Amino acid sequence: MNGNSTDQFFKSTVLGHPSGLFVLFFTEMWERFSYYGMRALLVLFLTASLLDEGWGWPREHAMALFGSYVGLVYLSTMMGGYFADKIIGFRYAVLVGALLMTLGHASMAIETQWSIYLGLGLLVIGNGFFKPNMTSIISEMYKDRPEKKDGAYTIFYMGVNAGAFLGILLCGYLGEKVGWSLGFGLAGIFMFFGLVQFWLAQNIFGAIGLKPKKDDTNSIEAQDNDKRVPFTSWQLGLILLMVVLGLLWIINAPATTITGGEFNIFSFLGENGNNMAILTALGLFLVLLIYRFTQYSKITRDKLIAVTFFALLSVFFWAIFEQSPGTLTIFAKDYTDRTLDGTSANIFRIVNAAITLIPLAIITWVLFLLFKQTFAKYKWSNLFLSLSFLIVWAIAIWMLLDQLKDDKLEVPASWFSVLNSLFIITLAPLFSKWWESKYNPSANMKYGIGMFLLGLGMACVAFGAMGIEPGAKTASVSMIWLILVYLFHTMGELCISPVGLSYVSKLVPRRMIAFMFGVWYLAIAIGMKGAGVFGENVDKVADESGISYFFWILTIISLIAAFFSVVMTPIIKKLMHGVR
């Protein structure tokens, strides 16, 4: 067997995939637990009154800081990807990232002004090191088994969502009911468990992700004989300018909002200085991208154009999908009837218990299967992992018992965002089977189906809201519309998000993989910021034409994108040169 074959990883398998995939699955799960747990609390904490031990910020200020935090989290992945590719290797990048994030959560638990900002900064940098390199390790593990890649990313994506689901549910509940510090602290404890578990089991990855060696014949660089296009000094200068403009903008925009215009680095550009700065940066990025495409060999260029097409569609997808923490939560809070009593309250308690305990039980079963395969070699890693599960079980049971106390029950507005992760955990295996069957649709069809489902979800809430008068501040629409939105949106997400990552790894030359994952996350960051821009206009549209009209606009944008994706199928298929 040659030295660079990946068949060795398939000797010890869990559910038909290498045990190593599940070590990554649990590491990523605790990282997402801490990220989403903290994310669910941040805006609540900033906007909670001083009496409730929050900071008493207006919603607009909290959303401005939050939007920039989420944007920075995705932008920092480009830096982390570059460092890992060129200097420290994927594996150390994951460890450095996990350590910085543990410190970031610990810092937020202190709750003073400087510690919250320091914590957010550490989380951004840590995430940059962590996120792109997890996907890069999977990409390397499956390089000789491309047909199993879509399935592997879908399983990995389930880990991501299991973590998000438990994080929102448990950190959110503890933070709101007991104290903010406990919620933030819990997130940090689980990040630490993820770090230790990965560190103790890292030999399972063989030589993957160690420091890159300059003259290694098995290295990514040596095996790749495609035409080289190194960055010249003027290109690096342009990149530096774009990065500086982008970073200044993303920090300055919320600062301008929060200080009411007193603090504004770009004030010399006039009152639209912030917009001019970011548009300049995006313009320069497009110029550089197009110029570099002209320099590659034809096949590489074609494949990179195909990746860029999918990245562009992703911007639209995320801008509409990410209405969940914004306009859809406002819709849940102000326009949806969430009070339950008697039988309906009991039904909710039973459903809530089921959706907490069943996913936990399934993931505990996967943990048990991993145990059987790896306990002999990686005893301490497994023991740490089981300790973290015992704590989660204890908190989940405490939460469910705590909810039995009141007769009347109000479903929290944030509870609906748990549905997304729940539906993913349930539906991911079905979609994974579909992608591995003979009915596997082409990339463009997957994107078309995903955008169509996104539009269908928005149409549900638009239809449900049709009775609401323009300018109305409250209403009591049935909860069923929101549940349908999350169902259709999740099915759309399963067609787009894990599939997108898989195509980047198949189309991009291997030496550029972590950098192109970075560009992919840049597209997501632009989409996230776009979601905020859409969301800022919801009140204006609702006052003039009714909130239903706002959701119909998003429906139409989704359907146009779906149509565009399907129509472009023959062109993109040609550019992909046989990659399925």
From TrEMBL:
CDD domains assigned to the protein according to its UniProt record, in alphabetical order: MFS_DtpA_like (cd17346)
Membrane topology annotation: Multi-pass membrane protein
Gene Ontology annotations of biological process type: oligopeptide transport
Native species: Flavivirga eckloniae
Classification via Pfam families: PTR2
GO molecular function, one term: peptide transmembrane transporter activity
Keyword Plastid attributed: no
Protein name per Swiss-Prot or TrEMBL: MFS transporter
Places the protein is found: Cell membrane; Membrane
InterPro entries the UniProt entry points to: Dipep/tripep_permease (IPR005279), MFS_trans_sf (IPR036259), MFS_Transporters (IPR050171), POT_fam (IPR000109), PTR2_symporter_CS (IPR018456)
Residue spans crossing the bilayer: 33-51, 63-83, 90-108, 114-130, 151-175, 181-201, 236-255, 275-292, 304-321, 347-371, 383-401, 413-435, 447-468, 480-501, 513-535, 547-572
Top-rank taxon: Bacteria
Keyword Nucleotide-binding: no
Keywords: Cell membrane, Membrane, Peptide transport, Protein transport, Transmembrane, Transmembrane helix, Transport
A GO cellular-component term linked to this record: plasma membrane
Phylogenetic classification of the source organism: Bacteria, Pseudomonadati, Bacteroidota, Flavobacteriia, Flavobacteriales
Similarity comment text for this entry: Belongs to the major facilitator superfamily. Proton-dependent oligopeptide transporter (POT/PTR) (TC 2.A.17) family.
